[in-house]
Design a protein that fits this description.
heterodimer; A: 101 residues; two-stranded antiparallel sheet; B: 394 residues; mainly alpha; 13 helices
């Protein structure tokens, strides 16, 4: 696969894209693309769904003063997932938190 | 002396580019928050501006090459002179202003690459450009990014509505608005760390090319500060024309959709940049908004607007390349040519600004949807624009 790839494409591609290797087509690393899609999909759906579930639990009971205790606990547990995701997002955005990479 | 004048011109145009980048991309993070009323328009752009400034200071690692492999730079390739960088920046700035005038979100990074490609072709011929890298780093991601973000946002929106009984459970609308503010802020911060840094890179590499700074060094403090301030100012002044398109015209966004779209955007951008498959912020957020429109029952996505945005994306690179090429052709002739390009560029920019003044879009009328989109708008509610004006002033 990789030999064929080297034979078929003009040399500029190889010079420009040193990381060319298995799983590449049209210069795009489809393996890492699929990984990005799967991880981003799972993270987004998980965060949105738990946050929505938290809101639903928060709206349980006849009014805010008479919300069942389990619903309150569950709601805050759901929001904790969101808070954790935000903190992890900040960790990823701010390079000072991971000087190595 | 010539070199000094060129370098000064590059720095000025680079900061102008940074400014247009800021006000072009305010829409990415804040359009949905403005549209749903999660944040007042002025507050939204204020938060975004501060986060862009903070982001500029957080990340100051400069790229090794200006064009990221799109142009054959270095020993065996073209020498990208300050004049060519200047010409490329002119192309990028004018394209950014033209798309702003039309109210279309388009990638500032692609405009910059387009301008540089045009300048490099004039400077050194077609061989200077790595078209395979253009394909893999610009064209394919431009198709992939919005689709990926759209699918993710569609699914997230669907679940958000299902779980909260179509957002009718008590307090859910308000709750989604709070969540949306947080995820939009993350998008803003991520934008600041990426985009201000690009201009810093352009200025630093120009200083290196002109011999004013050692290669491989960090950008000087004044470069970081001025880039941060330029992008923050641009963000604060807000490209309201683009905010209106993204927040109101693609689809009428409600808070569950806004939350799902911004959260999907933030997650997609962060995951992609940390797993080594960087996607464009503009394209991810636009795709996510279309997805959030498709994910809600009975919501309409205005495909006419989506089509116009798609055309703008397709034209971005060649259009900026054409202007960049013309600018490079004139600017490389002589110092007079260079100054002439600067003057003409400034005149074109001012011209677009004056054109825009004839139908100004500001923080006050950003949520009004005017006649132009009424064909695609809600026919049952012709007074839509008056109603939304009340919402904003309330």
């Amino acid at each position: 696969m990789s030999t064929l790839y080297l034979l078929e494409l003009p040399t500029t591609v190889i010079a420009a894209d040193e990381a060319a290797g298995e799983g590449q087509f049209l210069g795009v690393d489809w393996g890492s693309f699929v990984l990005v899609f799967v991880v981003a999909f799972a993270a987004s759906v998980l965060i949105v769904a738990t946050y929505a579930f938290g809101l639903r639990l928060l709206g349980a009971g006849p009014d805010a003063a008479h919300r069942p205790m389990p619903a309150t606990i569950g709601a805050y547990a759901c929001f904790a997932v969101g808070v954790a995701a935000v903190l992890y997002g900040l960790y990823l955005i701010i390079p000072q938190f991971h000087p190595g990479g | 002396m010539d070199v000094l004048i060129t370098v000064i011109l590059v720095i000025v145009v680079a900061l102008v580019f940074d400014f247009t980048n800021g006000f072009h991309d305010t829409a990415n993070a804040m359009a949905t928050s403005v549209a749903t009323g999660a944040l007042k328009p002025r507050v939204a752009v204020g938060i975004s501006a501060v986060l862009n400034l903070v982001g500029a200071f957080l990340s100051t690692e400069v790229a090794k090459t200006i064009s990221d492999g799109i142009i054959n730079e270095g020993e065996n390739g073209v020498e990208i002179t300050p004049t060519l960088i200047f010409a490329g920046l002119i192309g990028a700035v004018l394209w950014n202003l033209a798309t702003w005038y039309l109210g279309l979100p388009s990638s500032s990074t692609h405009a910059l690459f387009g301008g540089l490609i045009g300048a490099a072709i004039i400077g050194a011929g077609f061989g200077a450009v790595n078209f395979s890298v253009v394909l893999s780093k610009i064209l394919l991601p431009a198709i992939i990014s919005p689709v990926v973000a759209g699918v993710i946002a569609l699914t997230a929106t669907y679940f958000a509505y299902i779980i909260t009984k179509q957002a009718r459970s008590r307090g859910s609308e308000a709750g989604f608005r709070h969540g949306q503010t947080v995820s939009a802020s993350l998008v803003s911060l991520a934008h600041g760390t990426n985009d201000a840094q690009k201009t810093m890179g352009v200025i630093t590499l120009t200083l290196v090319a002109a011999g004013y700074q050692d290669a491989g060094g960090a950008p000087p403090f004044w470069v970081i500060l001025s880039c941060g301030l330029a992008i923050a100012l641009g963000t604060y002044l807000g490209g309201w024309r683009i905010i209106r398109t993204v927040g109101k015209r693609i689809t009428d966004i409600h808070s569950p959709q806004g939350f799902a779209a911004e959260t999907s955007s933030a997650a997609t951008i962060l995951v992609s940049s940390h797993l080594g498959f960087a996607l464009s912020t503009t394209q991810v957020t636009s795709g996510a908004i279309v997805g959030s429109g498709l994910g809600k029952k009975l919501a309409t996505v205005h495909w006419g607007i989506v089509g116009r945005i798609a055309i703008a994306w397709g034209v971005t690179l060649p259009a900026a390349a054409l202007v960049g090429g013309l600018a490079a052709w004139a600017a490389t002739t002589s110092l007079v040519g260079l100054i002439l390009v600067a003057v003409l560029g400034a005149a074109a920019g001012v011209g677009l600004y004056l054109l825009a003044r004839r139908h100004p879009v500001t923080h006050e009328n950003v949520n009004d949807v005017d006649d132009e989109s009424s064909d695609a708008g809600d026919p049952k509610n012709p007074k839509n624009s008056k109603n939304s004006k009340k919402e904003v002033s309330a």
